[in-house]
């Protein structure tokens, strides 16, 4: 099970759009996905309609099991949403012996998924530290604009610090250039800078697309809203990149009895 956080302390860089469409795209490729909203603003609940009363706060505070607060959005895709009640979890951190381990403790029993995708709030607070210490991979969306680009080093340093302090190994597997306009000189220069500084992990850009902005109002992913749009093409390519980096599944061992029979047959042939 791959545990991936979509994270950047800067707002307005397309974190929720990226999380929603990665999760939706993976589910369409046959992967079982749980999408978790770790932002008290609850943007995912607005983007993908859910009427579930129980949410991430109730799960983290031990008021319910994860099954009770998960909404099925369709084949292979489930959602654990959030709202402003999540801000109350900060008080629980204050009385906890291990305030950075709450996610690791609560999510340890979550099973049956190929991917857990966490859409993080634009901050570096305890909530996000919890997520980073639970996840194994980080995807960082960043717009190809000057100011968000200057903040990229901040989240990279934060991940490095958390790894060093807690002996963790959260890997930044992808930097995703978002809101990219190839006609804009600054955008082109910023994309070139990303590709120069982080050539191994910078993905193809997610281009500016009106359909991506419209899709949340309809409660749909870009694939359901307009599968022929540039946004669907770009996020489809990102999903393919994630799938290519999957570890090959190990083949089940042959039953011992079958192996013994095959070995004995080989010995008899040699005799």
Structural class: alpha/beta
CATH-level-4 superfamily name: P-loop containing nucleotide triphosphate hydrolases
Strand order of the largest sheet: 3-4-2-5-1-6-7
Please report the distance between the alpha carbons of the first and last residues. 47 Å
| Assembly form of the protein | single chain
User: Helix segment count?
Assistant: 13
What do the pLDDT scores average to?
A: 88
How many structurally independent domains? 1
Low-pLDDT segments, ≥5 res: none
Radius of gyration (Å): 21 Å
Quick rundown:
This protein is an alpha/beta fold.
Descriptive report:
By secondary structure, the protein is α/β, with parallel strands linked by helices. 43% of the residues lie in helices and 15% in strands. It contains 13 helices and seven strands. The chain has helices at residues 15-28, 43-47, 56-60, 89-94, 102-106, 126-134, 146-150, 152-166, 185-197, 210-214, 222-225, 230-244, 256-270, and strands spanning 2-6, 33-38, 71-74, 77-80, 115-120, 137-143, 171-178. It has a seven-stranded mixed β-sheet with strand order 3-4-2-5-1-6-7, with helices on both faces. The longest helix is centred in the middle third of the chain and has 15 residues, at 152-166. The protein is globular. The mean pLDDT is 88.
Structure keywords:
globular, alpha/beta, 7-stranded mixed sheet, Rossmann fold, 7 strands, 271 residues
Write the layout of secondary structure elements.
Layout (H helix, E strand, L loop, with lengths): L1 E5 L8 H14 L4 E6 L4 H5 L8 H5 L10 E4 L2 E4 L8 H6 L7 H5 L8 E6 L5 H9 L2 E7 L2 H5 L1 H15 L4 E8 L6 H13 L12 H5 L7 H4 L4 H15 L11 H15 L1
Parallel strand pairs: 1-5, 1-6, 2-4, 2-5, 6-7
Antiparallel strand pairs: 3-4
Helix pairs in contact: 1-12
